[in-house]
Amino acid sequence: MTKTYPKASRPSLDNVSVSIEKGEFVFFIGPSGSGKSTIIKMLLHEVTPNKGRVVVNNKDVTSLRSWKRPHFRRSIGCVFQDFRLLPNRTAYENVAFALEVIGKTKAVARRVVPEVLELVGLGGKEHRYPHELSGGEQQRVAVARAFVNRPLILLADEPTGNLDPDTSIEIMRLLDRINRTGTTVVMVTHDSNIVNQMRRRVIEIESGRIVRDQARGVYG
Amino acid sequence: MRVKYVLSEVLVGLWRNVTMTIAMIITMAVSLTMLGVSGLVYNKVADMKDLYFENVEVSIFLKPEATEEQRTALEGQLRSDALVRETIYVDKNEAYERFKEMYQDAPDLVNAVKPDQLPESFRLRLVDPEQYRQINDQYSSVEGVDQIVDQSRVLDKIFNLFTAGQNVALVAAIAMAIAALMLVANTIQVAAYSKRREVAVMKLVGASNWFIQAPFVLEAVVAGLIGAVLGLGALVGLKTFLFDGALSSLQGLFSPVSWGEIFLTFPLMAGIGALVSAVTAWVTLRFYLRV
Questions:
Q1: Pair B238, B207: CB distance under 8 Å
Q2: Which of B128, B70, B126, B116 is closest to B91 using CA atoms?
Q3: Does the beta carbon of B202 lie under 8 angstroms from any beta carbon of chain A?
Q4: Which of A25, A133, A200, B273 has the CB geometry, 3.0–4.6 Å to A137, for a possible disulfide?
Q5: CA–CA gap between residue A84 and residue A190 (Å, rounded)
Q6: Cβ proximity of A27 and A189 under 8 Å
Q7: pLDDT at A141 over 90
Q8: Strand-strand pairing, A25-29 and A184-188
Q9: Across the interface, do A70 and B197 touch by the CB < 8 Å criterion?
Q10: A144: which chain B residues are within 8 Å (Cβ-Cβ)?
Q11: B206 and A86 in contact by Cβ < 8 A?
């Protein structure tokens, strides 16, 4: 697929073709502005390619109508560098909010949220506010929120960008554990340490082109 | 749970920005009151036109020296005229009776006038009272006709006054509506900004568009409805204190405004208030949140 943003001199993604299998763990690496984030945005149906198709879960979402986008998003969980938690809600409420706004009842939230908070290692800290949690803990809340709906795909856009190396590794363990439940994990990162330790599929992008696609790769 | 969530969001939203909410409600109320007044005047004018024009007559007065033949010829012409619904011949005696009746408070005047001095006339009811001019053109030059008098021309002047008043109210309503519209748009923008984090998360986790928009749109709709209720209150006040109070001496002139009519304007005001608010809020959100 190709994506050229208006006013851009060269395409952000130039004839890129990637296929990711269900249950894979994939790193996208490359310098800033190489087009990694564009791939994430396409998977989220935030941008659409000028040429080519985006197929998620055997469904062509290239020309998905905008009113169908919300439902499509429910099959994808998202984690970002800046956590994006609601500051006036506790860890529990942040996760429950994600459930409630897609129509789940409070009863469902009461059952599912403690479970997922336990899974990400925040048992006992459910009622802390984001400012009472460390960066790593906040990111765990974000992961819990992304995963609580059991998405098919977990997109992580530089999830360790704001964290120290030790905490980063803990978050990676968590993502790995989520991956083992069968969830496809797609992660964009600059962190060579993490890529080298994980030894998963690495796709390197430069200037909108794939320059490397390696199973069990390193940052290089 | 979702209904409860949406409703509590609406209340929180209205309260968060309470000065703006009040400004929005007041402009909305004034605009809707003007709209209601304009609607009522429009109704009244239509009512009164029916009432007055029903009884309006065009009188063709004959010259004193008009001959019998001239009169019969004119009568024949009038009776076969498609514009004329009814023709009544008033001879000198009958004219005198009418004159006596009209000036019964001034017996001196009545005594000074003899039946012979009064002109014979035809009193016409027209099919359409507005077609007076054609009658005038057609018959003013007929031999024996002295002059043609049309009562509806006087009425027209009164009605033009009413229509002008109605237009003023309508223009004020539109001007206030534009102000209200901008306040709604602004309030919604502020509300959306203060909830931008929640909205971002909702979009991210796939909350449906209506669920994201509903609290904002309902916030505007509730403000519009409160404005309509205040507008209704203003109309009730106008009727009680102005129409039934200060202007009660003029009641013979106007056809009365009933409570029923006042309350019937409420659905109009509420409907327009709610609809305009909802559409404005929705359009603002589309631009501002892109949902």
A1: no
A2: B116
A3: yes
A4: A133
A5: 20
A6: yes
A7: yes
A8: parallel
A9: no
A10: none
A11: no
Q: Supply the pLDDT for residue A90.
A: 96
Task: Give B212's contacts (C-beta < 8 A, 6+ positions apart).
Answer: A101, B199, B202, B203, B289, B291
* Structure token digits, residue B71: 């009169």
Give the end-to-end CA distance of chain A in Å, rounded to a whole number: 25
Contact flag A102-B208 (C-beta cutoff 8 Å): yes
Task: Please tell me the pTM assigned to this model.
Answer: 0.72
Measured between CA atoms, the residue of chain B closest to residue A66 is B291
High-pLDDT (> 70) share of chain A, %: 96
Sign of the Cα torsion B165, B169, B174, B179 reads positive
Matching residue, tokens 């009425």? B155
| pLDDT on residue B291 | 58
Q: How far apart are CA A134 and CA B237, in angstroms?
A: 61
The length of chain B, given as a count of residues? 291
**Residue with structure tokens 């023709």?**
B87
Please tell me the predicted confidence (pLDDT) of residue A34.
85
Residue B252's pLDDT band (boundaries 50, 70, 90)? low
Higher pLDDT, B128 or B270: B270
**Residues of A engaging B, defined by a Cβ cutoff of 8 Å:** 67, 69-74, 78, 84, 86-87, 97-98, 100-103, 105-106, 145, 149
